[in-house]
Write a structure and sequence with these properties.
The chain is an alpha+beta fold and 464 residues long. The chain is built from twelve helices and 22 strands. It has two domains: 114 residues, 3-layer Sandwich (Rieske Iron-sulfur Protein), CATH 2.102.10.10; 282 residues, Naphthalene 1,2-dioxygenase Alpha Subunit, Chain A, domain 1. The strands form five sheets. Strands 14, 15, 16, 17, 18, 19, 20, 21 and 22 form a nine-stranded antiparallel beta sheet that branches. The longest helix has 18 residues. The radius of gyration is 26 Å and the shape is globular. The termini are far apart.
């Protein structure tokens, strides 16, 4: 409790802190700014929403779609996803164009879906197949002029992907290299966030937060090595943005790469396989993850947790494993536990449903966040001007090379007390080695990168 000071006779006591002038600034500081609508609004017709609609996004887990339709919301649109009797996936507007009944109560047929109210029957592409109770002439006219809003969708390794943009601009689906690794088991999962999509996405280019949120502030959620504050560097390469954290852990140097492929595909190193204490050559990602807006105030990450020799240990392939990999804690916890041991959800949701960027005070360590926002804004304006956005499939053939992961090399400490400059050179050498291997098939790529890393280690970091 604050100390108190006695005022003049007859006057009440006041806390000592209240007598200090000029130290408190709560009164008068009020939020008068609006969120950055260009970056955070995602509904139809908004600049960011139209940009995001030019890409394929996961919208559901395959395991969620059984005999009944599933209502969902994506990019501010109310939709229904279903699987018909021919095992085709449909993603359609929620309301029947006849009398606006919800197709979440529809009947999945051998082909398409039938509305519960009057039996109007639609194919997965929205074509009207039948309007019962109408004359043949009326049915023919209705089939010509009525169509249910629908989007192309397909299943891939347990996730349902959809494209919500202009049909004549449908892009190729990007198959990232980590999605095709034969020795990796990928387990689909969903992570909900009650906030704007950009708050969730920001964290991938904020490598320093792991040293605090996941270590010293909360309990040790991954390993002691994560608590080491290393050298942070950022790399920009066409549609790829990467943040590296180069740490010393005893006699080792640990390179960890967080990666964003515009607009919302993210990868990072292992959550539990790497802690900086053991050599690791060319480890890959713990998750392959899309940050997908539900609407302006809600987001979901749809992803695979990756288990195997180059990902996280198979021992973590448990029902709770993907949740721990995603944010260091399970999702559904009592409030007190969330206060004591916050994870990513608590950090980003605590900013509010939509944070106001004008009220932030960015620091040098936020360079990656600032870079990401600038690049997103450029791409949003590119689409608004009627031009095509950057897409990885226009820049690299499938499978698309990616860089999220970590490696641990045994490198003795140099003579300098501050290793920051040495770590900067090492991070650039490490990334250059990966970039040089882009065109190689995976087995040759692994051999190339591993050999170069061993050479870097052998020269004590002085060459690559």
């Amino acid at each position: 409790m604050s100390a108190v000071t006695r005022s003049a006779p007859g006057r009440p006591l006041r806390p000592e802190s209240a007598t200090r002038q000029g130290r408190y600034r709560g009164h008068g500081i009020r939020s008068a700014s609006e969120p950055d609508g260009e970056l955070v609004r995602v509904g139809p017709g908004t600049p960011c929403g139209e940009y995001l609609r030019r890409f394929w996004h996961p919208v559901a887990l395959s395991s969620e779609i059984a005999e009944l339709p599933v209502a969902l919301r994506i990019l501010g649109e109310d939709l229904v996803v279903f699987r018909d009797g021919e095992e085709r996936v449909g993603l359609v507007h929620r309301h029947c164009p006849h009398r606006r009944a919800s197709l979440e109560y529809g009947d999945c047929r051998r082909r398409g879906i039938r509305c519960c109210y009057h039996g109007w029957h639609f194919d997965v592409d929205g074509a009207l197949l039948e309007a019962p109770g109408q004359s043949p002439e009326a049915q023919a006219r209705l089939k010509e002029r009525v169509r249910l809003g629908a989007y192309p969708a397909f299943e891939y390794q347990g996730l349902v992907f959809a494209y919500l943009g202009p049909p004549d601009e449908t892009p190729e689906f990007p198959v990232y290299d980590t999605l095709e690794l034969a020795d990796m088991e990928r387990v689909p999962y969903r992570a909900p966030f009650r906030c704007n999509w950009l708050q969730v996405l920001d964290a991938i280019l904020d490598p320093i937060h792991t040293s605090f949120l996941h270590s010293s502030i909360s309990r040790e959620q991954f390993s002691a090595g994560f608590g080491e504050i290393g050298r942070i560097d950022f790399f920009e390469r066409s549609a790829w943005l990467m943040g590296t954290n180069t740490r010393r852990v005893g006699g080792n140097v640990w390179f960890r790469v967080n990666e964003l492929v515009l607009p919302n595909f993210t990868q990072a190193g292992a959550a539990f396989a790497a802690d900086g204490t053991k050599q690791r050559y060319y480890g890959r990602t713990a998750f392959a993850r899309w940050v997908v807006p539900i609407d302006d105030e809600n987001t979901m990450a749809l992803a695979w947790a990756c288990f195997g020799e180059r990902g996280d240990p198979p021992a973590w392939n448990t029902p709770q494993g993907p949740e721990l990999i995603e944010q260091g804690e399970v999702f559904d916890r009592p409030y007190e536990q969330r206060q004591r041991f916050p994870g990513d959800a608590e950090a980003v949701e605590g900013m509010g449903r939509i944070t106001v960027h004008d009220e932030e005070h960015l620091a040098p360590s936020d360079k990656g966040v600032a870079l990401m926002r600038r690049r997103l804004r450029e791409q949003i304006r590119t689409v608004a001007a009627g031009r095509e956005p950057l897409r990885v499939t226009d820049l690299a053939p499938n499978p698309v090379p990616t860089y999220g992961g970590d490696s641990v090399l045994t490198l003795a400490r140099g003579g300098e007390a501050d290793e920051s400059e040495r770590f900067r050179r090492l991070a650039h050498a490490f990334m250059r080695i990966q970039f040089d291997a882009d065109a190689l098939p995976e087995p040759e790529r692994v051999a190339f990168v591993t050999e170069r890393l061993r050479a870097l280690e052998a020269t004590d970091g002085d060459g690559s």
